[in-house]
Amino acid sequence: MNADNPILQVEDLSIALPAGSDRASAVRKVSFTVGRGEIVCLVGESGSGKSVIAQGVMGLLPKQLPITAGRILLQGEDITQAPLSRLRELRATRMSMIFQEPMTALNPVMTCGDQIDEVLAEHTPCRRPSAAPGCAPSSTRCCCPTPNA
Ligand SMILES: Nc1ncnc2c1ncn2[C@@H]1O[C@H](COP(=O)(O)OP(=O)(O)O)[C@@H](O)[C@H]1O
Ligand SMILES: [Mg+2]
Predict the structure, then answer these.
(1) Cβ(102) to ligand 1 under 6 A?
(2) Whole-structure pTM over 0.85, yes or no?
(3) Backbone phi, then psi, for 100, in 5-degree steps?
(4) What DSSP string describes 2-70?
(5) pLDDT for residue 141
(6) Is ligand 1 within 6 A of the CB of residue 147?
């Protein structure tokens, strides 16, 4: 593909809120692009829909928050139309999300190392990544010096 094409295009994205919410839509007609090597920050007050947009990009929206309009193109592929199997291929290989709240995103009864292993074993050829010489340092580089403690 052309190097000038955006990596991510969010076009006129609208995501509904459940009936009885304070408004009809979590986000309405949101558009932005992310180019290769570019960092894009979504800024807005709490509850304005930043996390919901990220969940939409990852295909992780709960059923009660459906995409009602718009498209999300990842390297030209409309992932709002992608089946679950395709989304699973894309996650952790072409797109990833670092969740805001470690207390809810991480499982307190598993070590960080096991949780990193689980993701990499699911999405890469590594079966036991934290034990592999090339993989273990990644967890220590991001301030987790003893991921299997
Ligand atoms: N699972 C959910 N069920 C119902 N409403 C939700 C859910 N998740 C988010 N919302 C609502 O969607 C809106 C956007 O939330 P969110 O994307 O978390 O905001 P931000 O990340 O910008 O703080 C808020 O009104 C929030 O209450
Ligand atoms: Mg948020």
Answers:
(1) no
(2) no
(3) -70, -40
(4) -TTS-SEEEEEEEEE--TTSSSSEEEEEEEEEE-TT--------TTSSHHHHHHHHHT---TTS-EEEE
(5) 54
(6) no
